[in-house]
Amino acid sequence: MPVSDTNPDLALYIHWPFCRQKCPYCDFNSHVRTTHDSAEFGTALCLEMSYMAKMLADRRALTSIFFGGGTPSLMPPAVIGKIIAHAEKIFGFAPTIEITAEANPTSVEAKIMTEFYHAGVNRVSMGVQSLDNDILKFLGREHDVAEALSALDTVRHSFDNLSIDLIYATAGQTLNDWQNTLSQALAFDLPHLSLYQLTIEPGTVFYTRQRNGETLNLDDDHAADLFELTQHITAAAGLPAYEISNHGKPTAQCQHNMNYWRAGDWIGIGPGAHGRFTIAADEYKNLQRVGTATRRSPAGWLQSVQKTGHGIDNRTHDGADAFAAEMIMMGLRLTTGVSIQQIETICGPRGEWLDDAAVTQAIEDGWLDRNQSNDSGMVTDLRATDAGRLRLNHIIAMILR
Ligand code: SF4
């Protein structure tokens, strides 16, 4: 099948669901298993990729691949190589393709990253999570600060495009504590940082502990102070926020995640993976956004793929209104915001999905900024302010019909 390099971008997400242990704050689809056959899972991932490729209306070159989890750095490099080769065979690669693998910062995994590089991975996102041993212990992480720094040093030899994740706003963390951690991280002169506030998610060990009366994270006001500090320090260091939790040099923004936030097309494979892509987009009245979700259980997913070629257990078909809502919800996470005019071109008249009076109110409240057309006085572009990005769910509920 011919491959075209025309827009929109097409991304591929691969979920590797296995971890060595379960962290108490984690609500990802991750499972502690030692008995699975990695090669068998690799073969099944390729099978499901081929199945999903056939669902697309057209075949396009991939612009990004992301190995997430779980812990992809536990994958054998040969399995990573096989999946990348299969993706190139069935889709083709755009010349600037970004291929990311998430990794934990242990010494063993850091060494394996060199083999990932030779298998085709060109970006690494390391789950460092903290540069404070007490917080790492609280978060139930396997590594300590010394091991994380040493792993970072090893991985830098192979990868220029390197990001680390840090978690902040843990109970008792002061502005000073966080400033120290951020300064240490910035001293590495990395091109990208992902900085997440600790949130307590249902189904996690932390959730149970919180319900039993423990305080595990900062209250909203203190967390907002740390968020504000984060914006200042990272901007001054040349890594401004480009999304709520993501900071990078302009040339190092994560292309794969940018595609999600721009409501682009992506295929998701592996246990518990989600995908979304648009078909029949030429005429907005016929537009359909297909959503897929696969079985979460690794064993159940494997069995389904081996039997039917895919592990999809939920498929949705959204129309133009739902697609407009997705574009606004995802796009307002970005500091650049969204083009209302562009959404109208794809999804039809704004009156069907946007409440202009509520938009005006949110602008007056200081949560949104706008550009407006001189001719019509209507809002053409919308972006959330720093204050607005902290209460995005509320604003979105306000402004969408
Ligand atoms: S290593 Fe990552 S995916 Fe695995 S349990 Fe911990 S936070 Fe979750």
Q: What can you see in these coordinates?
A:
With about 400 residues, the protein is α/β, with parallel strands linked by helices. About 40% of the residues lie in helices and about 25% in strands. A 9-stranded mixed sheet has the order 9-10-8-7-6-5-4-1-11, sandwiched between helices. Strand 4, helix 2 (about 75-90) and strand 5 form a beta-alpha-beta unit. Helix 3 runs parallel beside helix 5. The radius of gyration is 21 Å and the shape is globular. Bound molecules: iron/sulfur cluster. Iron/sulfur cluster binds near residues 23 and 70.
What compounds sit in this structure? iron/sulfur cluster
Our estimate of the beta-strand percent is 15-25%
pLDDT averaged residue by residue: 92
Fourth CATH level, the homologous superfamily of the largest domain: Aldolase class I
Which structural category fits the helices and strands? alpha/beta
Distance between the termini: 41 Å
How many strands, what sense, and barrel or not for the largest sheet? Answer: 9 strands, mixed
Residues in helix, %? 40-55%
Summed up, the helix count is: 15
CATH class of the largest domain: Alpha Beta
CATH architecture designation of the largest domain: Alpha-Beta Barrel
Radius of gyration: 21 Å
Shape: globular
Strand order of the largest sheet: 9-10-8-7-6-5-4-1-11
What's the multimeric state?
single chain
Count of DSSP strands: 17
- Total discrete domains: 2
Uncertain runs = 1-6
